[in-house]
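note to self: dont lose this again. the chain is below, predicted strucutre after it. 360 aa total, dont forget to put it in the shared folder this time
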Amino acid sequence: MEKKTVILAIESSCDDTSSAVIVDGVLMSNVIASQKVHEEYGGVVPELASRAHQQNILPVVDTALKRAGVAKEELSAIAFTRGPGLLGSLLVGTSFAKGLALSLGIPLIDVNHLQGHVLAHFVEPSVELIAQTPSLQGAEIKHPSFPFLCLLVSGGNSQVVLVKAYNDMEIIGQTIDDAAGEAFDKCAKVLGLPYPGGPWVDKLAKLGNPDKYPFAKPNIPGYDYSFSGLKTSFLYTLRDMLKEHGVETIDELAEKVPNLREDMCASLQTTVVDILMRKLKKAAQDLKISQVAVAGGVSANSALRQAFIDYGKRFHWEVFIPPFSFTTDNAAMVCQAGYFKYLDGDFCRIDEVPYAKTTI
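---
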């Protein structure tokens, strides 16, 4: 009987501890433990994140193995996120992966977190996992073919990636300052919304007027992005309104300006999506590529997902939008990247160390 290929993956790049198992190319489990401790601080606190990873990693890995119906002795290799991310968080996942791999005598596979987001489009969940995961039920599971363009957008990255193969990706455009997700989070914080701000912007935007406030859009050459000017425009708009109405706080302003937060969020979201899609459209037209995907945490934004559908119809793209389960940081994408590398025999040495910053 032919031995199965069983990959265990560990993702710990930021504030989510996640583990997943793939058996012969099929995702059998994907477990995520989120950290609520950062909400009161309005952002991720690195020291608290690494401590929480230490508490979560063993039960998360154990649960992933049990849900997949796999014993650790059956593992073929262990994949782990090596970077980029918070170094303290990465060290927890890397150290655990190394220790487990050494104890079992199996190879290690290091995964670039950003490449993992792109390769989430190739995850094939099992029937059992779909039945257990509401966000996968009814989701269209389809995979792009090479080459394709991927818009990778998250709290730390905004990139247009030309994907020629699973291990051949080229960044053809990226933000020169702030990322789109960072713009959402920081503007949301100014409005007094909870952390993380992106989902709150999306929620309130559905109740607001997207044309109420015309925020500045950058004029950056090529396929690169910039969101610092948009944030400044957002802040100046609020500053001028505070002065106009003679108040000092956002709450006081909201009492005088009906639907303030909803209209600000709607206008912000529309501007960000328009900036992202204009550059993506230019790249697709210049490179004559009609397969276009989106990945990363901001790909959960409803307006961006709808924009992909609309642009797809308008410009005859075949669009690929990941299920919500595979948008934010998760081990399924790391497992998929690890599976591809395992088939190629692309392993890493035990003395490799994590890295905080890198590109695709």
